[in-house]
């Protein structure tokens, strides 16, 4: 028993904490940048010209139709053939950003389409310019509608960030795998790794619920 | 006595595909007048009001506000024009994410550029005018239909419009709630607000309107004061329509 | 042109991998269907401790990445000194994860049924278990098809992770061929296309199924066409 504790304290937890830092360095920028790109992509897919819309739809369908594992391998192993080189971390981050922005754009688009025409008419009738209408009427409503979906997407991202291990990025999963292979203690190590992810997901869930509650308005529900 | 022309609409036409929705509609609004648009549903009353506020772009025609033609193609001028022309919708169209007082104050802040406190103060005055001071912190979903429409009036009036367009303001309301909205309109009329209203409230029209405009199939068929169109011996199309409604 | 011949050479192997991929996906869907439906019914009609247990189950599988679960499964076989069975582990891990998500789909479907259905069945003298089997489930399953089609495409994509255990699916065979020939670009593009097509085919089939099972004029409370 004392030996086990020693293993956790001396070997496993320091490694996992190192990995956690890398994981967070993947998840936080990927979700923020991915969200911003998702908003841009969602807006162009909703309000853009026909050609731009088609282009955005095709990109989204492609990213959503191909497994993230393949996208990762493609970016890390295949793009160098075209002269584009990535570090493991850069490859993982890039692929997460691309993936998240495609999924986020779906929620953004849905939210934008759910805004009643009457709301826009009323704003026009009061003399709002198109830009002010978007800023003060459409965005505050669409943001509330998109929040649950976008939040879920962030939770998915936390879990799928473990795939960075596939391109040898030493995050939580990668660090865990090294310890497990060295010590052959698969059960303990991967339960611990899983609990790290479970904690991150749970914290994110609580934060998102809090945010949803804070932003909620009587009678104004996501469809 | 007051012959100052506020709004002039000249020769407005609109068609969608082969179908003509409005043809050559013209009307003139003097200061303090309440003109009423009536006619069977589908006659083009709502569309005409929407064209006046350019929420629908007419194919041809002119709009003059206080004698100056409005360049509806110019986005900036159009926004400025719309701040001077208030609109009340059949289905209220309150902003669902804002409280009553925020609904009234948002255009003051974002369009007029007032400070938050100033806008709030002004919005409060307008809410008091329609007797909704106590409901100021409620969201649209928490208000009754009549209350929502009164907030919509406060929202439009806060912009100090020269003229108010009312698109069937009571037809989405339960019968027992119609009275409170009509009371607001009556107050406005006696206060000298210039208004044009599409409605089916015939008795109210008789009592309060200065002129009736009867529309059918996108045409303005008749216009004139209620006494002459609805009087004892009148032989007007308007009277026929009035009687057909009364007999139902 | 070298890459083209490599792809053509590897294609039979990759395509036979798609049978393994589909095998994992459908096994996982089936596990998720049976357990998920059971969990959903318990969540709606069950006692509070049953609901709490299912809540914990969902919380756990929503938080654990599939990659971690796969290695846990692997570790379990190692700890028990059994020969590791990658295909079996893949099916069970994806199936148990899918159970958590499918139970939410079914729960939503049951909750969106008209509230009178259960009462009407009871009024006819049915036991609750009978009513659930012959009245609630047939309606709820129809309502679940869109969610199900979504779950299929998620599982298909998740199955591409299983190659880490050596499961011989599309991904594993592609990675193997790529490592041997260094034609990563062409091979991964090809594999991506196969996944893409597999998604499209099944989503189309399920949309047809939804139409065929449609009951004329029937809508749920939420107004969605059934």
Describe this structure in words.
- The complex is a heterotrimer of chains A (223), B (248) and C (226).
- Chain A has 223 residues and is mainly alpha-helical.
- Chain A has one domain (2-215): MetI-like (MetI-like fold).
- In chain A, 81% of the residues lie in helices and 0% in strands.
- Chain A has 8 helices and no strands.
- Chain A has helices at 2-47, 50-65, 68-78, 88-113, 117-125, 130-160, 172-183, 186-215.
- In chain A, helix 1 packs antiparallel against helix 2.
- Chain A is flat and about 70 Å long.
- The termini of chain A are far apart.
- Chain B has one domain: P-loop containing nucleotide triphosphate hydrolases (Rossmann fold, 3-Layer(aba) Sandwich), CATH 3.40.50.
- Chain B is of the alpha/beta class and 248 residues long.
- Chain B is built from 9 helices and 10 strands.
- Chain C has helices spanning 2-45, 48-63, 66-79, 86-111, 116-123, 128-158, 170-181, 184-212.
- With 226 residues, chain C is mainly α.
- Chain C has one domain: MetI-like fold (Orthogonal Bundle).
- Chain C contains 8 helices and no strands.
- The model of chain C is unreliable at 220-226 (pLDDT under 50).
- In chain C, 80% of the residues lie in helices and 0% in strands.
- In chain C, helix 1 runs antiparallel to helix 7 (170-181) and helix 6 packs antiparallel against helix 8 (184-212).
- Chain C is flat.
- The longest helix of chain C is centred in the first third of the chain and has 44 residues, at 2-45.
- Classes of the chains: A mainly alpha (223), B alpha/beta (248), C mainly alpha (226).
- Chain A binds chain B through residues 116, 118-119, 121-130, 132, 135-137, 140-141, 144, 217-220, and chain B through 53, 55, 75-76, 79-83, 85-87, 89, 91, 93-97, 106-107, 110-111, 138-142, 155-156, 159.
């Amino acid at each position: 028993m004392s030996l086990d504790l020693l293993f956790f304290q001396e070997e496993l937890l320091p490694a996992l904490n190192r990995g956690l830092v890398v994981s967070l360095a993947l998840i936080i920028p990927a979700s923020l940048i991915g969200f911003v790109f998702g908003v841009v992509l969602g807006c162009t897919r909703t309000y853009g010209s026909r050609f731009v819309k088609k282009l955005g739809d095709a990109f989204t369908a492609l990213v959503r139709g191909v497994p993230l594992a393949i996208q990762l391998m493609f970016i890390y192993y295949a793009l160098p053939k075209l002269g584009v080189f990535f570090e493991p971390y850069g490859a993982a981050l890039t692929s997460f950003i691309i993936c998240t922005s495609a999924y986020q754009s779906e929620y953004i688009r849905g939210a934008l389409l759910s805004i009643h025409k009457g709301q826009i008419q009323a704003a026009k009738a009061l003399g709002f310019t198109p830009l002010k209408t978007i800023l003060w009427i459409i965005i505050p409503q669409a943001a509330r509608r998109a929040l649950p979906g976008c939040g879920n997407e962030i939770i998915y991202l936390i879990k799928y960030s473990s795939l960075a291990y596939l391109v040898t990025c030493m995050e939580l999963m990668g660090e865990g795998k090294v310890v497990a292979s060295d010590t052959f203690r698969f059960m303990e190590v991967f339960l611990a790794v899983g609990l790290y992810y479970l904690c991150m997901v749970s914290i994110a869930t609580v934060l998102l619920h809090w945010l949803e509650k804070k932003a909620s308005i009587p009678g104004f529900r996501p469809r | 006595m007051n012959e100052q022309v506020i709004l002039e609409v000249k020769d407005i036409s609109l068609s969608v595909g082969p179908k003509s929705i409005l043809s050559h509609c013209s009307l003139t609004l003097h200061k303090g007048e309440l003109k009423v648009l009536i006619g069977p549903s589908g006659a083009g009353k709502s569309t005409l009001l929407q064209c006046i506020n350019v929420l629908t772009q007419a194919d041809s025609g002119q709009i003059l506000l206080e004698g100056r033609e409005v360049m509806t193609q110019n986005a900036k001028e159009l926004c400025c024009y719309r701040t001077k022309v208030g609109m009340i919708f059949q289905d209220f169209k309150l902003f669902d994410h804002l409280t009553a007082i925020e609904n009234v104050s948002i255009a003051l802040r974002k369009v007029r550029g007032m400070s938050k406190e100033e806008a709030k103060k002004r919005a409060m005055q307008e809410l008091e005018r329609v007797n909704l001071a106590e409901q100021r912190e409620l969201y649209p979903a928490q208000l009754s239909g009549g209350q929502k429409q009164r907030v919509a009036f406060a929202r439009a009036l806060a912009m100090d419009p020269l003229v108010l367009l009312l698109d069937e303001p009571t037809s989405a309301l339960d019968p027992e709630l119609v009275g409170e909205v009509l009371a607001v309109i009556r107050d406005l009329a006696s206060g000298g607000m210039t208004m044009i209203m599409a409605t089916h409230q015939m008795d109210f029209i008789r009592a309060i309107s200065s002129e009736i405009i009867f529309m059918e199939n996108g045409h303005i068929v008749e216009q004139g004061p209620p006494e002459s169109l609805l009087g004892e011996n009148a032989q007007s199309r308007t009277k026929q329509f009035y009687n057909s409604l009364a007999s139902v | 042109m070298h890459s083209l011949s490599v792809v053509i050479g590897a294609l039979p192997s990759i395509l036979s991998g798609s049978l393994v991929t589909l095998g994992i996906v459908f096994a996982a869907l089936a596990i998720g269907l049976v357990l998920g439906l059971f969990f959903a019914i318990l969540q709606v009609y069950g006692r509070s401790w049953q609901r709490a247990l299912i809540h914990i189950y969902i919380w756990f599988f929503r938080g654990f990445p599939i990659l971690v679960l796969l290695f846990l499964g692997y570790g379990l076989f190692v700890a028990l000194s059994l020969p590791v069975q990658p295909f079996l582990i893949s099916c069970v891990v994806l199936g148990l994860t899918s159970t958590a998500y499918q139970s939410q789909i079914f729960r939503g479907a049951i909750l969106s049924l008209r509230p009178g259905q259960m009462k009407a069945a009871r009024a006819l003298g049915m036991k609750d278990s009978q009513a659930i089997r012959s009245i609630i489930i047939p309606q709820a399953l129809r309502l679940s098809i869109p969610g199900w089609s979504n779950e299929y495409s998620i599982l298909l994509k998740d199955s591409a992770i299983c190659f880490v255990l050596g499961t011989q699916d599309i991904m594993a065979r592609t990675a193997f061929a790529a490592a041997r020939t260094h034609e990563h670009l062409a091979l991964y593009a090809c594999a991506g296309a196969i996944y893409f097509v597999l998604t499209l085919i099944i989503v189309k089939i399920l949309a047809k199924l939804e139409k065929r099972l449609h009951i004329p004029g029937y809508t749920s409370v939420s107004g969605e066409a059934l």
